[in-house]
Amino acid sequence: MQQPASLMTSSAAQIKEDALIRPADAQERIARNVREILVALGEDPEREGLKETPQRVAKMYLEIFSGLYEDPQEHLKKQFSADQHGGAVIVKDIRFQSTCEHHLLPVYGVAHVAYLPDGGRLTGLSKLARLVEGYARRPQLQERLTDQIAQAIAKILSPKAVLVVLEGEHMCMSLRGVRSPGSKTVTSAALGRWAENLQERQEILSLMKS
Ligand SMILES: Nc1nc2c(ncn2[C@@H]2O[C@H](COP(=O)(O)OP(=O)(O)OP(=O)(O)O)[C@@H](O)[C@H]2O)c(=O)[nH]1
Ligand SMILES: [Zn+2]
């Protein structure tokens, strides 16, 4: 495949893929600081309802940010060939939950992921959903999440083309700030042939919407 070109960012920087090593005391440090937030709010962190909250929140953060400690590309490395299948593979409506890195509030949405295999090299369909999840479970920007998914497929499967479309609802726009519930943010990244060939890209987009 030729040098990929992104729809969204023509100079998409190489995204760092290394998984972090989780600090051994991560849960304790988070819990300590959540307790401090409760105190700063004027709450009594010792009252019954709040007593276990710092530990609960710490465990929750480690769960929703578990993608920081894995390399999601690994999922795509399990591959097989498929008797000369020459058409596109599209997995649409992959539900994802992420966290906006500006406010640490949830982002809910769906991802539509498509690629055009080269020489029949395929990965399992569930691996595409695992890829989305691995990158979603981090403090994220929707644009970065979109690019990371597309670039991982391009790098590991070497397909002829990739198209990723994400639709997300950001709680930081619904619950606070501008308070615009229901608004959706749509981002896309097209690589390889679908970055150049608008007609083919349009066909894949309509299959994603069908
Ligand atoms: N481009 C982009 N922006 C995001 C994403 N998630 C949250 N934001 C935006 O990040 C921006 C942060 O803006 P700031 O002005 O620094 O923060 P703020 O005062 O809390 O902004 P408001 O949300 O407008 O109240 C907001 O406009 C959010 O809507 C994302 O995934 N991509
Ligand atoms: Zn936000």
From TrEMBL:
EC number(s) given by UniProt: 3.5.4.16
Segments forming domain GTP cyclohydrolase I: 31-208
Transmembrane region(s): none
Binding site for Zn(2+): C100, H103, C172
SUPFAM superfamilies xrefs: Tetrahydrobiopterin biosynthesis enzymes-like (SSF55620)
Domain of life: Bacteria
Pathway of action: Cofactor biosynthesis; 7,8-dihydroneopterin triphosphate biosynthesis; 7,8-dihydroneopterin triphosphate from GTP: step 1/1
Pfam families according to UniProt: GTP_cyclohydroI
Keyword field: GTP-binding, Hydrolase, Metal-binding, Nucleotide-binding, One-carbon metabolism, Zinc
Keyword Hydrolase: yes
Family: Belongs to the GTP cyclohydrolase I family.
UniProt-recorded name of the protein: GTP cyclohydrolase 1
Organism: Aristophania vespae
Annotated gene: folE
